[in-house]
Amino acid sequence: xxxxVNFLAEVSNYVEGDVADxxxxxxxxxLSHCRSCTxxxxxxxxxxxILTDVDCFDLPHEVCSRIGRQIIDRIQSEASERNPG
Length: 85
Description:
- The chain has four helices and no strands.
- It is mainly alpha-helical and 85 residues long.
- Helix 1 packs parallel to helix 3 and helix 2 packs across helix 3.
C-alpha cells in the first residue's frame, strides 16, 4: 500500500493525469482510505482552477517553500499518528 509520503511524491502527476494505470489504481486506493491526501488533491485541483480562471501571479519562493513544507509536515504527522512506530 502507498504511504502518504509516497502519495505526496506523485500528487502533481496524479492531478495532471500523468501516471500509469497501475500507479493510478494504487493512488486511488490510498485516497479511498486517507482523508488527508483526499483533501490535498481536492485543494490542489481547486487552486489550479482558481489560478487558471484569473490572471496569474507569482508567489515569492519563500511563500511557496513554506506552504509546501507545511503540507509535507502535516501529512507526515498524520501518517505517523495513524501508523506509530
